Amino acid sequence: MFQVFKKLDWFFKHYWKRYTFAIIALIVSSAIGLIPPKLVGYAIDKIQFETLTMRLLVILVSGYIVLTIVHYAISFLWDYTLFGGAAILERWTRSKLMAHFLKMTPTFFGKYRTGDLMARSTNDLKAINQTAGFGVLTLVDSTTFMFMIVAMMGFTISWPLTLAALIPLPIMAVVMNKYGASIHARFTKAQEAFADMNNDVLESIRGVRVIRAFVQEEQDENRFQTMTNDVYEKNIAVAKIDALFEPTIKILVGMSYTIGIGYGALLVFESRITLGDLVTFNVYLGMLIWPMFAVGELINIMQRGNASLDRVNNTLDYHADVTDPGEAVKVDTLNAIQFNNVSFAYPGAAVNQLENIHLTVQKGQTIGVVGKTGAGKTTIFKLLLRQYPGISGSIKMAGAELDTIRLKQLRDWIGYVPQDQIMFSKSIRENIQFGKEDATDEEIYRVMDLAHFLNDIKQLPNDLDTEVGESGVTLSGGQKQRVALARAFIKNPEVLILDDSMSAVDGKTEAKIIEHLREERQNKTTFIAAHRMSAVTHADHIIVLEDGKISEEGTHKELMKLNGWYKEQYQQQQLNDKEVSS
């Protein structure tokens, strides 16, 4: 049960002063809280024997008030310190998770779904927070405070009465242990069900247009209802065990009260204890309710925290399959890029996605990459970005092996516009400034002109401050592509990769963007993957991929002379364009 504290020892060691102070303050506060019942019992005995004077009464009341004030002040200090530490742990762990996510490669995100990662970053972290805060409180109160109360009852009143009243405790320990094991198993299942539901909601929101287009609203709602019922049932299973804690403890505490009052009254009649002692004993017995209840809460919280911490640690223990080299090569100037006999298969795939790729790109060249869907165009770019390990052959930049260059330096060189544009739920200005944080409005308007977006921005309600909505939902496909292009242009990278990034714009717009590219990208390298041959006719070198191999390569003119796939596609597209224009 206490394994969760061992797993968090790195945190407690770092903040040992904070937790030492909090625990000491908690113990002192508890000790002070044991004094008032003795004062009450003392006053009752004085009243019974008619020896209570006004002076003594004033002293007792004044002492009671002072103790209350001191108890309040110390309680505030331990509460603030203890639960403040728990908040720090949650913040630290959330930051570690976020930093971990940003280091991960596509392999990781293929294993963990977004909804599951969000569940681990929210619900599971809350359970860990509870462990480091309320868990420590219940641990101290269910052990130290309980022993302090028992010691006061035994040493200052009567050990026989104390031991008799504590007979239900061993029964409670056995029952609580069984409840705890069941809580751990059921809570883990509930968290997994919540993660599945989370993921389903995200997919439904992202795909709302498709759901509506195919009139699947009712089916999606029914599927969601099924998942929420599953989450509900699994949480009810946890709640059923959770609900057993309090009545079980109340029954056992009731047994203790019955024993305490019955046996205590007998001892009073036998003059072995005073009436004041019996009153004090019953007050202590009432105070003992919380420590006994804390035992159950402790087990509950520890099991929940342990289950959540295991889920979070499993995520953090996943090692990125692409990392920085131990000794990085320093490259000051990026010139040639070379693919030497490169072959590659995705993790778990039986066949290679790329086979024996040979390509040399000089600085300032524009390279066109064309081919059928699934031919391997995007894969080449993913390898250039070092998103996957397991490359056969070598990729060199400026003569250095790709895996000897630091990831930050490599990705600083590259501006990447993928097939599926990612828009952040911010303004258009902020989306473009993602490429250059301190970009001025003048610079932003300039790159929007390059991306042929100026006319569009004038039609939007708030110009650059127009919010694009979740994943750019307020923009059309072509608008999102052009904002993504502007974001890459403003970075002005050494290597610009356009992965079918103009598929949603019309031919005239594409031609203007290409013209701007040719003017702006002189002496800088550009890769353009496209299905429309018109996007690459200006390229210095074009490669045609077929089943992961280069089947044709050369300039536009050279490829037209080969009478191969490229020429066939180009002529077919030209014919289609003429038919559309006519």
Automatic annotation (TrEMBL):
Entry membrane topology: Multi-pass membrane protein
Annotated transmembrane regions: 20-44, 56-74, 145-169, 249-269, 281-301
InterPro entries according to UniProt: AAA+_ATPase, ABC1_TM_dom, ABC1_TM_sf, ABC_transporter-like_ATP-bd, ABC_transporter-like_CS, P-loop_NTPase, Type_1_exporter
Subcellular location per the Swiss-Prot or TrEMBL entry: Cell membrane
Keyword set, alphabetical order: ATP-binding, Membrane, Nucleotide-binding, Transmembrane, Transmembrane helix
Entry GO MF terms: ATP binding
The keyword Signal belongs to this UniProt entry's keyword annotation: no
Domain ABC transmembrane type-1: 21-304
Domain of life where this protein originates: Bacteria
Domain ABC transporter: 337-572
Cross-referenced PANTHER family: ATP-BINDING CASSETTE SUB-FAMILY B MEMBER 10, MITOCHONDRIAL, ATP-DEPENDENT PERMEASE MDL1, MITOCHONDRIAL
Protein name: Multidrug ABC transporter ATP-binding protein BmrC
UniProt source species: Virgibacillus siamensis
Lineage: Bacteria, Bacillati, Bacillota, Bacilli, Bacillales
Name of encoding gene: bmrC
